[in-house]
Amino acid sequence: MASSQLAEKAERYLERLCVEIPSRRVGSDGNRAATDFFAETTASFSFRTECPEFECIDWAQEGARLTAGGEPFDASPSPYALGCDVSAPLAVISTTDELEAAELAGAIVLLRGEIAREQLMPKNFPFYNPDEHRRIISLLELKAPRAIIAATTRNPELAGAVYPFPLIEDGDFDIPSVYMTEDEGRRLASHAGEVVALESRARRIPASGCNVVAQKATSAPRRIVLCAHIDSKLGTPGALDNAAGVVALLLLAKLLENYDGQLGIEIVAINGEDYYAASGEKLYLEQNQGTLVDIALSINLDALGYRQGPTAYSLYDCPDAIAAAVRSTFGGYADLREGEPWYQSDHMVFVQNQVPALAITSEGLMEIETAVAHTPKDRPELVNCAKLVTTASALRDLVCLMESQAI
Ligand SMILES: [Zn+2]
Fold it and tell me: What is the CA(346)–ligand 1 centre distance, in A?
């Protein structure tokens, strides 16, 4: 199939995934529509397709109302938080040591300053969870305030381009919480000790989701796994993050329509990279516990195809023969450059399990993270579909090279 036809296909897929489907957040109808679309499309290219299911929650909110001293304050329910309707004295906390010393039963607590500097990892998040975060979460649960208000600053590295960012984004944490800007936090702090009223209208909705696993040469002893996360954050169309990666996988599936080699191929839409519980990642690991050692190479596509700058790839614990195959194949494509390693996406799930990995993203990843990631600005116009075609073609070449050399 000619590149121009593939690029047209890519445009259509992208439109489907982030315009016709307005949100792919885990547990939503759009998320289900996206996984159905991925399953149907890969099946149409003669892949054997399975959709293992997991339970999760969806979440809905109608805003928050906060008043102190007769004045209103701007606050939003934290994603996946429970709602509340409480009036209680306000306690203000800025450090973990202050939290440790405080008596918070019956109070509403405002967290601001140092303690609210970075988003707290969800309490049951399996892949990365610093001690300091665990300490804050367990102290909050121990002190049991009636509600939490978090005033947060800009922190692109951990919260993407979102400001203010929710300090807590965790469906397993049951103290109701809202978040606000640093300025609102400063204004609210002057009401410490006074009774404040907080109503947060939010609810959790039991739901389900699935990964999509599309395979060829299923009886092969060795396989290559190519994945991209299909979910998006709440409140973004998620074009670069990560409809683009999903589209590149679908193009690759098309290019491998007639593949009949000896190396197993597994193309996976993983459902949970931007979800507090990483449900799809956990399910994939559970289902593949015994067979991770059979993966010759795992390849993760996330935030590639940014219209500015080249596509960047990076290698993680690859044996020499695989690294050489990747470099010689990708060296033939002007848009592909070897770039800096990064540690925030699904390739780390494989790396942590001793599976060699290759990650593909945009060289301008930092710019994407600080300007558009996780916001309504992450729209299809930012994606250059010709770059997705290039990546899919390079991956097809790599698969064929690895197959022919029996790597
Ligand atoms: Zn992503």
Answer: 8
